[in-house]
Amino acid sequence: MEKGSSTRTIAFSAVMAALVCVATMLIQVPIPATKGFFNLGDAMVMVAGLAFGPIVGAIAGGLGSSLADFLGGWYTWVPFTLIIKGVEGYLVGWINKTLGQSRGKYAYIIAWFLGGLEMVSGYFLVQVAMYGFSAALVELPFNFIQMAMSGIIGVPIYLAIRNRLRL
After folding, report:
1. What is the mean pLDDT of each run of 10 residues along the chain (167 residues)?
2. Over the chain, what HEC string results?
3. Which domains can be identified in the chain, with CATH numbers?
């Protein structure tokens, strides 16, 4: 987004946070070992970061995902999600913007991969601290699947809208 477009940033952040929240709440598969859940909200975190940059990505990822945790009754995870998904959205937006200017058209793949890896790593570290290594290992494959789904769903959505939005 262009500098000085604070109204657009606020509007895109609000819309994308709402989409992240809805996508996160739409499908939730509980994982009892860590009291977490598998969801498709990361796809919208990817769209937010890739399409609208690091600030919108961070706000949409952090607020949208943590709001879904709160509304879904996953209260323990709200502060962790705020940070983990906020960093994920920021990282995706920053990498795509930075590498896109210097490395060409496939920067979004690197952004998706590193952003998704941050999400998987962030939740793994919190789960190890809260529930132990074994319980965290139980959820690890689900987080990798969630990461993969964010690329399978989110990246094509970004590619479909980027030219229409002149991003």
Report:
1. 74 96 92 82 96 97 97 94 98 93 80 97 96 93 94 94 76
2. CCCCCHHHHHHHHHHHHHHHHHHHHHCCEEECCCCEEECCHHHHHHHHHHHHCHHHHHHHHHHHHHHHHHHCCCHHHHHHHHHHHHHHHHHHHHHHHHHHHHCCCCHHHHHHHHHHHHHHHHHHHHHHHHHCHHHHHHHHHHHHHHHHHHHHHHHHHHHHHHCCCCC
3. 6-162 (1.10.1760.20)
